[in-house]
Amino acid sequence: MTAPLILVDGSSYLYRAFHALPPLTTRDGRPTGAIKGVVNMLQKLVRTYSPTHVAVVFDASGPTFRDAIYPEYKAHRPPMPDDLRGQVEPLHALIRAMGLPLLCESGVEADDVIGTLARQAAAAGVDVLISTGDKDIAQLVDGHVTLVNTMTDTVLDREGVIAKFGVPPERIIDYLSLVGDSVDNIPGVPGVGPKTAAKWLQEYGSLDALIAQADGIKGKAGENLRASLPVLDMARQLATIKCDVGLTVTFSDLHLGVPDHDVLLHMTEDLEFRTWHQELQAQSPVGDVVVPGAIPVTYHTVLTEPDFAALLSRLENATVFTVDTETDSLDYMRAHIVGVSFAFEAGEAWYIPLAHDYLGAPDQLRRDDVLARLKPVLENPVIGKIGQHLKYDIHVLANHGIHLQGFAFDTMLASYVVDATATRHNMDDMAALYLGVKTTTFEDIAGKGVKQLTFNQIEVEKAAHYAAEDADITQRLHDVLSQKLAHEPTLESLFRDIEMPLAPILQRMERQGALIDVALLAAQSRDLGERMQALERQVYELAGQEFNLGSPKQLGQILYEKLGIPAPKKTASGQYSTAEDVLEQLDHPLPRLLLDYRSLSKLKSTYTDRLPELVNRDTRRVHTSYHQAVAATGRLSSSDPNLQNIPIRTDAGRRIRQAFIAPPGYVLLAADYSQIELRIMAHLSGDEGLLDAFRHGRDVHRATAAEVFGVSLNEVTNDQRRNAKAINFGLIYGMSAFGLAKQLNIGRGEAQGYVDQYFARYPGVKRYMESTREKAAKQGWVETLFGRRLMVRDINSKNPSLRAAAERAAINAPMQGTAADIIKRAMIGVDAALAGKADTA
């Protein structure tokens, strides 16, 4: 997702709307003011930020873990007013009807749910916008997390937190512990307000440092501090947002859904929100397309020979049709067909059940006979096939000896080309965005969790509607998306010439699989295990005791308490941080050993142990899945297993790669482009200095070093080349002088000097970056050399950190995207060459 994850503090919204806005009631006396206030703020938030992922989080009723810590927690807070209590349930129902995920977790507070989701997203590199008026949540702000107050339109990033509170986000917990909270009945230091708390923390650095020097604090404030020492640790626990709540959803599940138009119509009429009700009555747009409206549907279940013969005749005489398979597994190598559905136009579809085998299932046509008669049609290249993620269907049909031909239109790939970040490209989300239709989900008919049924166990009547709807919705998506592509010739070309031809190539790559030397991996696994044991013994020796190397808490105690290593930082929950970037900063041999141990452990669990388990028992190969419609830049990704992330820079990683082997008579050939993104930068910017370096085959990093540092190529030192390389790639990725200084471990002024010299020597690069920012701000997107559009929705955001991130993406995306397009074109060309075709362009 490129739009930020938006987390709304619903409880904060509710109370603020209730107290800030004038009372509003229906004609029969029901209060609705708080409902209307919250809804207005939510609508404004969605309009302003256009999120794809959002959640509104409310406090649950009942005690929380903080009550166990301090029974008097929130004891002075008055009960919820009756006029407000009666608005909670209809507000929740209205929010859900708006398509906004609503969370309410017992045993914790809304802040803790928000903190958990925010940390999940930030760890994945996703920006988070938290909408709240609660000062406690300022402790969550970091490079990815920002606060917005919709009632005052103020935004707090790290600098904003410092300006408002006088301390950075990582000191907010300490600040709150000192100040206390009369509303929540959190004890602080009597007489110490925000100014004194900020002053102390600025002077002493942290609450722990202040406590350590409490005896030196003079005056009444010092007396109060010393008297409050017994309660400060408890105050800190109460003020700390819990960021590891065990939720049943993750941040990536929180999709902005489609509003339930009928429910909203009913509720707005009942609550007497007349303006909104009138808007809903006249409303037709969803996203950026016009909803065709509800259309009557006719779905047929094919159970008899005459019905199948009629359908087959229609398929044989069609120029194009939609096809979708239903299977008993998501593993494309092992899945078998349970049924197959077809559509020719919107509103009508057919489902042929073939292998539903639950007790009492109706008689069905024999699968082998039906597929044998469908085979000539499905393999006819003249008859076009439309599908959603057809690569999977090609695999499944191949499992039954059918080689699908006539690959005409894949709605998943079309949606990805039209706008890679507007939605996830599964059928349910696409139907919501482009059709305004809420589809039947697999969970609706199969259930969830361990009791979820496989498709063959689902009643034919339910399965038939679901499967026919799949074909119908795919047909309708084709109708909408093909029109969109027709209006954008560049995108149409990208879809037809790159994405569509690549899909069957990826399918063949997946089916071919990768041959691995299982015995070699087993030997490597044993070796890694022995090396891990040796490292473990060394760690225990340095620590002076045995402990759980996988426990951050125990490790923190060993490093920072027993060994007395100064702790660079703590986590948001107040625990010692043992993250990789923190351990790398510690001047002690134990953290280095532990990092080596973690590296070997990851290689062992992810590759040497896991890969042999993934070998297909029939092919004796590993079969990954290549994903075409995930990365916004057009890059391919791989999963189950991920074959694109096997390390190459370490000796252990290179050894794992040696386990991928060719069968007798074949060789494995690896090919890659040299400095492709820098070459693309030279092409896009037209900078003569960069172009000249590539024309003459010079080491571009050495050439950059010579230009920036004003020396000849022969005089460039290794350090200068290293710095030049950091500048070359840093600028491509939008790195600031501050980031460059951190990477090179130099002063910010020196780093800025490097950047200034670079732009002075390569003015074309600077012009390109400036013009790209301007173009992105004007049109909301940038594009690759081949026309792939990369949306930058935050480019005009009022939030400086969101805007800066969007500007970095705008500069980098055309290069990453063009590199991805070039690789895809090369794959298509190589495939054609291997097939003996003349056209390898």
Record keyword descriptors for this entry:
841 residues; alpha/beta; 6-stranded mixed sheet; 51% helix
Explain the overall architecture.
With 841 residues, the protein is of the alpha/beta class. Helices cover 51% and strands 10% of the residues. The protein has a 6-stranded mixed sheet with strand order 3-2-1-4-5-6. The longest helix is centred in the last third of the chain and has 35 residues, at 800-834. The protein starts with a strand and ends in a 7-residue tail after the last helix. The model is unreliable at 284-293 (pLDDT under 50).
Helix content: 40-55%
Task: Report the biggest beta sheet as strand number plus sense, adding barrel if it closes.
Answer: 6 strands, mixed
Distance between the termini: 33 Å
Rg (C-alpha, Å): 30 Å
What class, by secondary structure content? alpha/beta
Mean pLDDT: 88
Low-confidence stretches: 284-293
Give a count of the beta strands, DSSP E runs of length 2 or more.
Answer: 18
Broad shape: globular
